[in-house]
Amino acid sequence: MAKQYDVAVIGAGAAGMMCAAVAAQRGKRVVLLDHATRLAEKIRISGGGRCNFTNMGAGPANFVSQNPHFCRSALSRYTPQDFLALVKKHRIAWHEKHKGQLFCDDSSEQIIGMLRAECIAGDVSWRMPCKVGAIEKTGTGFLVQAEGGDIACTSVVVATGGLSIPKIGATDLGYRIARQFDLQVVEPRPGLVPLTFDGPSWEAFAPLAGIALEVEVSTGGAGGKGSKGKGGKGKAGGHFREDLLFTHRGLSGPAILQISSYWEPGTPIVLNLLPELDVAEELIGAKTTVKKQLGNVLAQWLPARLAEGLLTANGFAPDARLADMPDAKLRKVGDAINRWAVTPTGSEGYKKAEVTLGGVDTRELSQQTMMANKVPGLYFIGETVDVTGWLGGYNFQWAWASGYVAGQSV
Ligand code: FDA
């Protein structure tokens, strides 16, 4: 005999726990299923162990999706202030680090504890670790095959997240359930991920591993900040000013993680390594007064190793005397620093990606409730959906907001 519930939530991560708590506190009988042995591992490892749990500026412009407007409704119904109020209610100490990003003072475990307490307050039933099998539509709802016995329920909420970090239990179950019910899935791919460069063209830069500096980065011809929806793709281009980090295999740091969500394979990213300086103008202006070598002049503004590496890779001699160089050549040096265009050959993939781009196509879902338009009672929330936030607390805000609206609707 199947055990009867109103709601089965599959995936006890950020979105799943929020949804379960909200639904259960409305009086729904909720069961929360997860195959992991440790609860909410992604929250635990987030924000370097301190969980960047929201961003006070979160709005639709901070998300990548084929439909950039889809997230608007949920984000406005459950705001960063709402989540902060919950954090305060649980007396969790927090601080703002940078650009509206809020972190726990102590540990991300406190956010997990808070969500677990909210679920317990609503008397949510837990099945964990629990293998989830087939899901069938019945006359009155759904039958979910699960370790520990079948579950009959009116609503199923799929909150199994994306494919990032498979070693802590990420699976494609959410996409498989969507396809089973004939819902479109936007092809998933790694997001917020370091970019890699294979081949001889990168050899000059590999020794620069460890160098970090603030840069401007753009891709896809974007002029504005972040995403600009265009042509139905919702990710025309990105533009960020953040820190860049050279690694042995390529480029990383917040600037690269951000731009990776906008980058299309085969296209370049453009880096301005000295956003405050028009390098060509400075060099031309200094020609007559500075009797120094080019590499030494650039080393005033850039780490010396980086200046030398860039000059060598672009065919300029670091020991060339500035005074001997024609203006046209100095303009090319300026371009190599203010408009350095490089084409990554790939990314570090799901094993390093903080999020998964793509997912259940938002055209299949109601933006008010997150329910599938053609399958009454079936909901998708969190990272499983084709809504992906920037780095900086936006992804958790989407998990809370989409979990909340589904929890209110089931
Ligand atoms: P989430 O991944 O949290 O939960 C999915 C749950 O489903 C998991 O518990 C999993 O075990 C379960 N599951 C999966 N497959 C299953 C199956 N087949 N059967 C049963 N259960 C299954 N974001 C942010 O805003 N601020 C931050 O500081 C960070 N930091 C960060 C660091 C790192 C290293 C990563 C990888 C990611 C972040 N993120 C982040 C992103 C953030 O963690 C992510 O977007 C949310 O956790 C997504 O929440 P979900 O609930 O959708 O999925």
TrEMBL record:
Highest taxon above the source species: Bacteria
Keywords noted in UniProt: FAD, Flavoprotein
One Pfam family from the record: HI0933_like_1st
Gene3D superfamilies with a match to the protein in the record: FAD/NAD(P)-binding domain, HI0933 insert domain-like, Translation factors
Cofactor(s) listed in the protein's UniProt record: FAD
Domain RsdA/BaiN/AoA(So)-like insert: start-end pairs: 189-355
Domain RsdA/BaiN/AoA(So)-like Rossmann fold-like: 6-408
UniProt-listed NCBIfam families: aminoacetone oxidase family FAD-binding enzyme (TIGR00275)
Protein name, per record: NAD(P)/FAD-dependent oxidoreductase
Organism the protein comes from: Massilia consociata
